[in-house]
Write a structure and sequence with these properties.
Blueprint: E1 2-5, E2 9-15, E3 18-23, E4 26-29, E5 35-41, E6 45-55, E7 61-72, H1 75-80, H2 85-102, H3 106-111, H4 116-129, E8 133-144, H5 147-189, H6 192-205, E9 208-210, E10 218-220
Antiparallel strand pairs: 1-4, 2-3, 2-5, 6-7, 7-8, 9-10
Helix pairs in contact: 2-4
Length: 223
């Protein structure tokens, strides 16, 4: 019997229920009698976990989904370790995602979102190795909290922004008050400064000054 094996696969040859050999890429001739063949695709496959409800460390329910690239590295284990290796991979990734989420609070989860996939990959490494597979990449696709939690988070951000704005206004008012106090002290110590400032203001506005005896100058209507 002629058996052709593609570059991305391996073929396991069993005789009387026992593994005889693993065929690599190329054309092979083997006897058909009492022989069973198992083809294993070794190309990376994308495993998508749909959105699922997971509780955080404080008991908050969040919806999260994951995508991972998994490849077979040991064809014999992939065939012999479990009845359905693909199903085991899916379950293992689900459990890894749950472990990564439940160990964190919601705020910590948001902060660590970018690296969560790498943590899941580390958590599933040993279970997948038992079935001859490896997770080459994992990434969180989506992470969302209930609407009331998102609203509360938005309100908290708004409150912080309003608080910062109020603080800046208070600082500006304090600075203006200090400037007025300094000006008042200067005028009290040097009365001539007030007359000089008055003359500067009149000159800038194009008005006239009427002197009443020895008193202070007064601003008249513009000509």
């Amino acid at each position: 019997m002629r058996v052709v094996v593609h570059g991305w696969e391996r073929v396991l040859r069993y005789r009387d229920g026992a593994l005889v050999e693993v065929l690599g890429p190329g054309a092979h001739r083997r006897p058909r009698w009492r022989t069973r063949w198992e083809r294993v695709d070794t190309r990376p496959r994308s495993v998508v976990l749909s959105a699922q409800e997971v509780a955080t460390a404080e008991g908050l329910s969040v919806r999260c989904s994951l995508v991972a690239d998994v490849a077979v590295v040991d064809p014999q284990r992939w065939i012999e370790a479990v009845q359905d290796a693909d199903d085991l991979v899916h379950v293992t990734l689900q459990l890894g995602l749950r472990d990564a989420v439940t160990s964190r609070g919601y705020d910590d989860l948001l902060a660590a979102r970018a690296g969560l996939g790498e943590e899941v990959r580390a958590l599933v490494a040993d279970p997948l190795a038992e079935v001859g597979a490896v997770c080459r990449r994992a990434a969180l696709r989506d992470l969302s909290a209930p609407a009331e939690v998102r609203q509360a988070a938005a309100e908290a951000v708004t409150a912080r922004a309003l608080g910062l704005a109020s603080l800046e206004r208070a600082r500006a008012e304090v600075a203006a008050t200090r400037a007025l106090a300094n000006a008042a002290r200067l005028v009290a110590g040097s009365p001539g400064l007030l007359e000089l400032r008055t003359l500067q203001a009149v000159e800038a506005s194009g008005g006239t000054v009427v002197l009443h005896g020895a008193g202070a100058p007064a601003e008249g209507p513009a000509r």
